[in-house]
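Thread: U11/U12 small nuclear ribonucleoprotein 35 kDa protein, structure

OP (GT): Posting the sequence first so everyone is looking at the same thing. Length is 213 residues per the record. Can we get the structure tokens written out before standup tomorrow? I want them in the notebook alongside the other entries.
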Amino acid sequence: MSVEKDDKNRIGDKKSDKFSFEDHLKRRQVAIDKNYEYTRDYEFYDPIICGSIDGTDEKPHDHGIVRAISSRYVPNKGVNTNSTRTLFVAGLNFQTNEEALKKYFSKFGKIKKLRLVRDIITGFSRGYAFIEYKHKSDMCKAYHESFKANIDGRELIVEYELERKLKGWRPRRLGGGLGGFKESGQLRFGGRYKPFAKIFKTKLYQLKKRQNF
């Protein structure tokens, strides 16, 4: 399969003495923004495509993707927040409570609803939360400025909420999400923490598009 790659969307690989830290931040942000836009434009979620470094894979290449494909996930229909103004926050210290989250994230704007997900039996935190802002601009500001933020000694994972936007979505705990870390044994790419270039619309994408996946 021949794929025409758009090298203009890639982050420069050449080292330069003039390449400053500020340049790095700018280029990284471009990659982050492009990754989210292209993922959203797909209209559906496919673990193989989102787990591929350039979107050209057509077969699973790690156990996490196989687990995601084999799983069945239905978004919580009881959630009544506006998904276009909601952030998904993970990697929380299990001791972090609602007050600590509100104190940090309210500096970006007015929070309409904050839900720290807890175990229904023990009441203990499960390490992730959903935060809905009153205004979308505040949510976007929190998303950009909370990259690798630290609360209670833990580096946070802050993403847009996508489970109600992308058909077929699988969360990270089921092997899905927008990417992973090589250290975890999953050779995964994607997301703002492992940004890649433009996702190319592969034959797999076109097939699922025709089948109205």
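GT: Both are above now. Quick notes for whoever picks this up: Residues 1-19 have pLDDT under 50 and may be disordered. The chain has two domains: 21-75+165-212, 76-162.
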